[in-house]
Amino acid sequence: MAGEYHILTSYMCIWYSTYYNIQRYEAYCGVHKITNLGEPQRVRVTFREFSLYNYENDIAIIKLSTVLPTNSYITAACIPNEDWLEGEIGIFAGWFNGTYESATLDQLHQFQTQIRSKATCEEKYVYQFRSKMLCTSLPESGFNPCGYELGAPLYTYKENTWILRGIATWIPDCLSADRLGMFTDVFQFRNWINRIINGR
Fold this sequence. Notes:
Blueprint: E1 6-9, H1 11-14, E2 26-29, E3 43-52, E4 60-64, E5 89-94, E6 109-114, H2 118-124, E7 133-137, E8 153-158, E9 161-170, E10 180-185, H3 190-197
Antiparallel strand pairs: 1-4, 2-3, 3-4, 5-6, 5-8, 7-10, 8-9, 9-10
């Protein structure tokens, strides 16, 4: 969530929408357990329009039809105004676990991660890593996110403020050794994001 009317996500999550009416789409915000339809904080929102950057730079902005309310489960995160630091601690949230064949988890999970250097990312994924990405460590046990996590957020917390650092673009196969999570680097797109959100 970026402001009252906008949600940031992966380009790949909604590129099919270019063939359909975006107003047919909807999202549920504040959800922590998929099967608990009675969650009091759960909010249904419909889409008004969207803005895509391009396929290579995996980021999109969804504009909502109505204001998205905030509560203890739903709040806006700030767009970063300064670049990330190697070793910075982040929080990643997601729904998938295990292998590519695994089903969606019933409950939202999150784990602590650490932003790695660009040199480490480039060395590990020489053909996949691009200049407007960042990569992070992934847990060695417990919750094990997989490739389905497109659009999932990577947050950092600084001076009592949540900052949206990354948007998941590629999570390697769950069985790969020493794998890293790949994210679109939100800082690199801050001017484009602010221009869209502010209507310029």
